[in-house]
Amino acid sequence: MEIVTSVDELRSHVWRWRTQGGRIAFVPTMGNLHAGHLRLVRHARAMAGRVAVSIFVNPMQFGQNEDYAAYPVTHEDDISALLEADVDLLFMPDVSEVYGDGPEHTTQVVVPGLNAILEGEFRPTHFDGVTTVVAKLFNMLQPDLAVFGEKDFQQLLIIRRMVSDLKMPIAIEAVETEREADGLAMSSRNAYLSAAERAIAPQFHQTLLDVRDLVLDGEQEIAAVEQAAMEQLRAAGFKPQYVSIRRCADLGLPEAEDKERVVLAAAMLGTTRLIDNVKVSIT
């Protein structure tokens, strides 16, 4: 595996790959890799002859009082895991390589509408930081396809919208959420949970499964179901921010004819913010 830190080095490798033919797959990450990330890498490997991964903790997607400075850096372990996963290239730029004069002076890529609901209500600048850095990374590497996890479902839709709107010739592949044995969605932030909080955490996913079951049973009072789920989370020790049943295609409020839906939620457990989602297919 080659490890590069500059755009010039990155493009040199990509140019050589292009002369040899074959597809290039890309998995952007912020490092602190876990089994969920490695599932994305395996999917990329199955889809393309060359696999590139980036590790870059993006300051633009962290808001005030969020954990940018404390975000766990585990480069040695990450490199070992990517070597074992047979990755061809690891791109590890610093902030100046990505943002030049700094994030506050960079051109931004914004997906209006989708960036302002759900997660966008609680993290107002988050998705603008995500789309800006992903657009930059796509332009640096110019892959044939990129792989993202469904745990960040809203992010996945936003990136797909950005790629479509900007006519980027990049296929976006989605991979199911990797979970612990007790159902908790894998996340780098799970390491912040205390032992007592970790014992409670699986109830977050279970609450979404309960909502899914109610929808599948034909419950039509969506607002009441969402509110009951919020109360269920509070009773378990969470501080829920939202539980919302939305249309899968665009996160709009579902109509009766919308058969593909998704239950999305965010909640604080102690000082750790958890997000998750469960898809619902109504037959």
Task: Please explain how this structure is put together.
By secondary structure, the chain is of the alpha/beta class. The protein has 2 domains: 2-175, HUPs (Rossmann fold, 3-Layer(aba) Sandwich); 188-281, Pantoate-beta-alanine ligase, C-terminal domain (Pantoate--beta-alanine Ligase, Chain: A,domain 2, 2-Layer Sandwich), CATH 3.30.1300. It is 39% helix and 20% strand. The chain is built from 10 helices and 9 strands. It has helices at 7-20, 35-47, 75-84, 95-99, 119-122, 126-141, 153-165, 195-200, 202-216, 222-236; strands spanning 2-4, 24-29, 50-55, 89-91, 145-149, 171-175, 239-247, 260-269, 272-281. Strands 1-4-3-2-5-6 form a 6-stranded parallel sheet, with helices on both faces. The protein has a 3-stranded antiparallel sheet with strand order 7-8-9, covered by helices on one side. The model has no long low-confidence stretch (mean pLDDT 97).
